[in-house]
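Appendix B. Chain record.
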Amino acid sequence: MRLDALVVSLRDGEVARRRLIELDLLHRGVKVKRDEKHLYLPLRSLPQDSSSLPDHRIESIEFEEVSRVESVKEILGYAPSFDVIGDIAILGASSEDPLAEADAILRSHKHIRAIFQARTPIRGEFRTRGLTHLRGEKRTTTTYREHGLSYRLDVSEVYFTPRLGTERERVAERIKSGVVLDIFAGIGPFSILIGKRHPEVKVIAVEKNRSAVRYLKENIRANNIENVHPVLGDSMMLPATGDSADNVIMNLPHDAEKFLGEALRVIRSGGIIYYYDITPEDNLYQESIEAIQEAAVDAGFRVEVLRERVVRSYSPRHYNTCIEARVHKT
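C-alpha cells predicted for this chain:
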C-alpha cells in the first residue's frame, strides 16, 4: 500500500510517533519502515500544522499491510485527551467516560500497562497531580524514552510532560557552549539532552522536589552523562555566583516571573533566558516580554528578544509559549 509518510531521524522517531498518535494521524494498518538513519511513519492524512513535529519531510512510500488495530477514536467515536508516559496512560480530569476510555486505550495501544485519571490539575510547588487508578497494573513508576535517552520516573511524585519533546530538541540545538542553568529541572529532560548532545557544555540542574532529584541522578547515571550536575535546591536561591551562567532555562509556566530576579542575578551579560509561560491567544507574547523587561531594568540589564514562539496548545484559547531573550548589562 502506498501512503504519504512522515520521515524523521531515528532519534526523533518516538517523539514523532507519539505526536502523530495524539493528532490521530498515524496509519495503523501498515508496518512502520526504517533504514539506518530514518523512520518512515505512515500517515492517515497530512498534518495541517507541523510546528509541533520534529524536523521531517513527507515522502510517498510503499508500506506492508498488517492486521489493523482500531484507534481509540474509532472505538469510542471521539478522541479523548490523554498522555502516554512510558507504558502508563493518564486521562485528563474532565474525561467523559474514564473506564470506557481506559478500555479503548488498552485495546488500541498494546504497550500500555497501566491507566490512571488525573483527579486534580497540576498544582503546588512540585507541579504534581492526584491520580486515580482505572485499569491495568497498579504502579506509577515507568521508563520514558525520548531522543535516544531514557528517563525513570514516578508519575505520581514528579512533574513530567511528554508534550515538550520537540521543544527540548529545539533548545538543545540552540545551546552549544558555556554554562547552562536549568532552574526547574525535574527529572532532567532538558538538562540531560543538552548534556548528551554537547559534552563540552556544563549543565547545572536545579530542582526542589527530592523525589525528582533522586530520579534526576538516576537518569544521569543511566544515560552515562558526566557534564550535568544535579542540585537539590530552591530556585529563589540559585547555587551560582553572579555572571556565571550563559543560558538560563525557566520552564515553570504560570510562575516563572517570580524567579526572574534570581535568574538575572546569575546570568552573564550577553546570556540568554528561555522563558516559558501560559498565555491567551489574544496576547501571546507581550505580557511575558514586559515581565522580562521590568525585571531586567531592576537588575541593570536591557533586553533583546531573539525569538518568540508557541510551543503547544495548552487549553482552549491558551498556549504554552517561549520567549528567548538575550540580556545585556547597561
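Further analysis of this model is presented in Appendix C.
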